[in-house]
Amino acid sequence: MRRGWIVLAVVLAACGGEAPPPARTPTPLDHATTGVITGVVGFQGAAPPMTEIRFGSFAECAQAHTGPVNSGDAVVTDGKVENAFVYLKDGLGDRVFAVPSTPVEIDQAGCLYAPRVAGAQVDQTIKFVNGDPLLHNVHGTPKDSAGWNVSLARKGAEREIRIDKPEVMVSVRCDLHPWMQGWLGVLDHPYFVVTSKDGAFTLKDVPPGDYTLAVWHERFGTAETRVSVPPRGTATATFALTAKK
To answer: pLDDT (tens digit, 9 = 90+) per residue, 160-189?
Structure first.
């Protein structure tokens, strides 16, 4: 019986890290001294056109939309970049952070991932939901931890996974609908955010110190800058991305 439970745990881990995460003791954080990092992810020059999705013979997907559908891979509004993943790349040392109890939820709606770009902490529950009345699968291919490929056969179907190692970024696709692309940034701390239409970002409750702040975008590449957070203060940073050649 004991051997059977061990085998089951291995199988669950291989299918997306569903085994319970190991216990961890968070490093105490003095909230009276923490600060904030704010800024904007901008774009230099004329923004390239987004990839237009061609549904082809998948009529059930096309029927969920009216007019042309863009993938969302290069959303730039008034020079501001949406769907950029901003995070602290280094500077936190050996601090340990609690794993959030609230899952990160990613829907498959209209044959698209929503949101297209998301972030989670290591071992945090990531819930994939099928919002469409048709079959989807969720195929994650991290480089540093176990991948997964699960089926969501009907509307309302859900599957929860965990990723046990940090990685920026993890590709998530649906093999049945090849245009369906999602991205997951996984970190061992809570200091990350995905930019919205205004390109702005805010990282709160950051311990005072010197950090490398980084940004990732699926078509505009990556950039880094150094920031210093004073006790109870605010650090600002601005990124100016360009189209990759």
So the answer is: 999 999 999 999 999 999 999 999 999 999
pLDDT in tens, 55-77: 988 999 999 999 889 999 999 99
For residues 126-144, b (16+ Cβ closer than 10 Å) or e, as one string?
bebbbbbebebbbbbebee
Mention every residue, 6+ apart, whose C-beta is less than 8 A from residue 114.
106, 107, 108, 131
Domains of the chain as residue ranges with CATH: 31-241 (2.60.40.420)
* Total-model pTM: 0.89
